[in-house]
Amino acid sequence: LIVASALVCSWAILFKQFAWIVVPFLLLWLYRNKGPWKLWGGIQAALFTVVTVPFLIADPGRFLTNVLILDSHRNIWGLNVWASFQRYLGVDTMPPVGLLHLIQYAIVAAVAFYFFRKGGPLSLADAVFRAAAILFLLIFLGTWTTSPYYIPVVVLLLAAAALNGASPPAAAPVPAAAPHPAPSSGRAGDGPRPGRTALTHPVVGQSA
After folding, report:
1. Among 46, 139, 147, 157, which has the minimal tally of Cβ within 10 Å of its Cβ?
2. pLDDT for residue 69
3. What pLDDT is recorded for position 92?
4. Cα–Cα distance, 107 to 97 (Å, whole number)
5. Alpha carbons 152 and 146: distance in angstroms, whole number
6. Predicted pLDDT of residue 67
């Protein structure tokens, strides 16, 4: 399953760069839970390298631009926070697009740093939810977005909800300790009391 998961995730990365955002959080989950994170990450890196190296050699400039730059548009448009501001402030009063990108990356980097530094146990649902939050911030703080961009966010949130609903296996019940017998007082007619166990002593050497 680990190998299949790594292959499928790497295949998703090859077709959509948004999948990159999920990988670090899944690696963090594997690392925190003593899983084979090196094997999982190594398989992805190997497949990604084999497929993409020919394109990198063919045209390094365009390849790096398409892979590393998430938003190459130079105008503000779509379902994002800056487009909302632009409707009320006007196009002429908006800051430069380059400055908005710096704000976007700074906020996303700060939130991602917090997610990675946050201690405590990390479940798979938490890891997927954090990836969804980072992806949402990247899209919502971008300068050019369309409604289909938010579909992967919804999918990740649904996956996190499904994983969170899965209950862990119930622990085996621990048997209760047997009560210690109370010693008899030795008085006549002193029988066993509720919650106590009467002690009987054999008589040694008694004749008929």
Report:
1. 147
2. 67
3. 82
4. 15
5. 12
6. 74
